[in-house]
């Protein structure tokens, strides 16, 4: 029998079925290994990204809040208070405590300082004579302070020359003897902080709430004064103690933006706010004390 | 003609393809690559965790500095000079009259798991 391919060799190259199956099996093994590694890496990447964000958020919240809280009472009286145009005493810090939700706080301080160039005896006049009017606009509340006493007036007109026109008060709110030339004059700044829907928000002078930091879940504040009992943190100081308040404890909790189904945690208790139900979020808590220098 | 030895390909004989050894070497190489990538994730988790611990530690240190500022100047050097909070140990030292009379240099050191952070500040009498 003459071989069929003799003289004209037909090349029988290629894979056998068995070879193909083995190659597919090996390939599938490799692909599934790479795929599961990719899934794992992707999961880990998303989680760690969230964790890094969470840690950054809690740091930012702490930094923003502590630096602003340190300003509380700047340019006010020796007790960190001032007399409002309606003749009531206003404190530099107004805490709002909650045991079922995050706390909030309002702080007040003076900005854009200038000085009186002439003494002023009472608050029923028409204008303040100052050395500079930069930063003052009509409608601003201004604080006049000689370091001992402080009073608040509302400007009712644009600065003219070196004069700041103000709305006369019904009764004289100035201390006896008024304020001497050289007393400081500031624009009153009132800043509030709250946590709403896991976002730390702030607003200035009762304006609209602005978002400051995302994924801040809880803010709990405690206060400590020089009055008795010294050294005890209270969640809700009665207003009179605020004049001798000199420490504010900040407890800030942030959580990851996305839940991780492979992780179980719960919002831990913070101060008087009890713990939450179990869920799938990671959390970080930072606690720091602020010395309120101006109170 | 039939048994004429081929010149090239001593190992491969007459079949093209890979040997088992070659496959194993390839798999090992790929494995090293994959393990390297996995190690990267472990590093990320570790770094994130360390970063969190450092933040907590430095907050503790700053907290103590702030608390010392609250005290009357004469009581800055009142013991104790260390405390513990969880796995963090906090110690602080007071150097009186440094860098000038009426000032104190305060160094707060927080140590945990063989790591440490340090915060330093100067507290002046009458200022806080």
Secondary structure topology:
The complex is a heterodimer of chains A (295) and B (128).
Chain A lengths: L16 H55 L9 E3 L5 E3 L1 E4 L7 E12 L11 E3 L11 E5 L4 E5 L8 E3 L18 E13 L2 E6 L5 E5 L1 E10 L19 E11 L9 E2 L11 E2 L3 E9 L4
Chain B lengths: L19 H51 L11 E4 L2 E9 L6 E10 L2 E10 L4
Antiparallel strand pairs in B: 1-2, 2-3, 3-4
Give a quick precis of the structure.
The complex is a heterodimer of chains A (about 300) and B (about 130). Chain A is about 20% helix and about 35% strand.
Provide keyphrases for this structure:
A: 295 residues, alpha+beta, 3-stranded antiparallel β-sheet, 16 strands, B: 128 residues, 40% helix, 26% strand
| Count of individual beta strands of chain A | 16
- Tally of alpha and pi helices of chain B: 1
Regions of chain A with pLDDT < 50 over 5+ consecutive residues? none
Mean pLDDT of chain B: 85
What share of the residues of chain A does DSSP label as strand, in percent? 25-35%
H/E order of the elements of chain A?
HEEEEEEEEEEEEEEEE
Terminus-to-terminus distance of chain B: 103 Å
Write down the overall geometry of chain A.
elongated
Structural class computed from helices and strand pairing of chain B: alpha+beta
Biggest interface, residues from each chain = A-B, 28 and 24 residues
Q: How would you describe what is shown here?
A:
The complex is a heterodimer of chains A (295) and B (128). With 295 residues, chain A is of the alpha+beta class. In chain A, β3 and β4 (104-115) form a beta hairpin. Chain A has one helix at residues 17-71, and strands at 81-83, 89-91, 93-96, 104-115, 127-129, 141-145, 150-154, 163-165, 184-196, 199-204, 210-214, 216-225, 245-255, 265-266, 278-279, 283-291. Chain B is an alpha+beta fold and 128 residues long. The mean pLDDT of chain B is 85. The interface between A and B is medium-sized, with 28 and 24 residues.
